[in-house]
Amino acid sequence: MPRKAKPEKTRQILGLSREQLKKRRVRSDLATRSRFKQAFTQIDKIYDKLDQAYTSSEGSIKIKGAIVGIWAKLAVDSLLRHKLFEKGFLQRITLLIDIFTTHVVSLQAISTIAQYGNKDHRVTVTRLVPVLLCAMKQGRNDVEVVALCISALFYSVDTCLNGPNKSHVVPFTASDVQSLLKMTIDALRMPDATQYCMDFALALLGSMAVDLHEEYMANPSVLAYLVACLRSADVSIRCAALAILVQLHISNAEVDTHSVYLHKIVAMATLTWPPNIRAAMQEYLDFQRVVSRCALDRNFYALGKTFVTIITRAEFFIQDIMLDFPEQEPSVSSRKDIDLPFRTWVDAVENSR
């Protein structure tokens, strides 16, 4: 194994002074925020040089892979990543996925972009689903390749389907969905699959369960595997599989439209009940009496002291709902402002501290 060159020998080979060599080592360090700021001010110049080296290295794939690695390191920072996206560096990275010697570093870069990127960046990565599926198929025996593809797919697909202001527009075809489901299940079945890979695979299946439930139902092998996961010795896998199976039926579930009328509950509590049930219900009625008394005397100190005793006696006695008052109609209730510094019961606890 060749010995690592000493700094003095490196300096002599490069023809640099000690100060120049020191500055070169410092400038190459992008692990600090100050170095990222320096890179941001010169990002146009840096990218032009890297892009020129990329295009002029047609005969050296390793140099292209090294440049992609530098871009991936720069893309961790949000400001630099936005600049790089404007210059179209993602297309440069995508071209190296099909090359054996550079496919890992390319997938690492795409996974980094998907993990740290914003909504627009992740939606852009979603357009690479066919490319990532092809990479998974070619490297189906390589755990690292499969894990990188699945992590990138999870961040991008989840943002597209479940992120804020989602449009429910699937940027890939139905055949891509079926291929994605099959390859994700195959990744979970890999005998040497890592926990990292399995976590992202289950998360990816869960992110598609609501909007693509019809595709799930059309694939019995996926459903059979999820049911089989309910017998796993790992409780996290059992819970994830159960959550996915529940999400598959959310779209067809009946909407819960029941309403809670507190004055009816209070009236019911005044009926004749067995002593043990009445004693338990009394714990939950104390809170309403305390709030009503506070509305009259404005004694928030007494309100807080009463809360202390109630909290230690009853569980879940404070509900996250507003103060309710019965109207003339039996089935109608209103929420009025009674000139208190809180409108909901939970806020009353905050104001009484």
Would you give an account of this structure?
With 353 residues, the protein is mainly α. Among the domains are: 119-252; 262-351, no CATH class. The chain has helices at residues 7-14, 18-27, 33-41, 43-55, 61-74, 78-86, 89-94, 103-116, 119-126, 129-138, 143-162, 174-188, 195-208, 213-217, 220-229, 235-247, 262-269, 275-297, 300-313, 345-351; strands at residues 325-326, 333-334. α5 (61-74) runs parallel beside α8 (103-116). The longest helix is centred in the C-terminal third of the chain and has 23 residues, at 275-297. This is Interferon-related developmental regulator N-terminal domain-containing protein. InterPro entries: ARM-like (IPR011989), ARM-type_fold (IPR016024).
Helix and strand topology:
Layout: H1 7-14, H2 18-27, H3 33-41, H4 43-55, H5 61-74, H6 78-86, H7 89-94, H8 103-116, H9 119-126, H10 129-138, H11 143-162, H12 174-188, H13 195-208, H14 213-217, H15 220-229, H16 235-247, H17 262-269, H18 275-297, H19 300-313, E1 325-326, E2 333-334, H20 345-351
Antiparallel strand pairs: 1-2
Helix pairs in contact: 5-8, 8-11, 9-11, 10-11, 10-12, 11-13, 12-13, 13-16, 15-16, 18-19
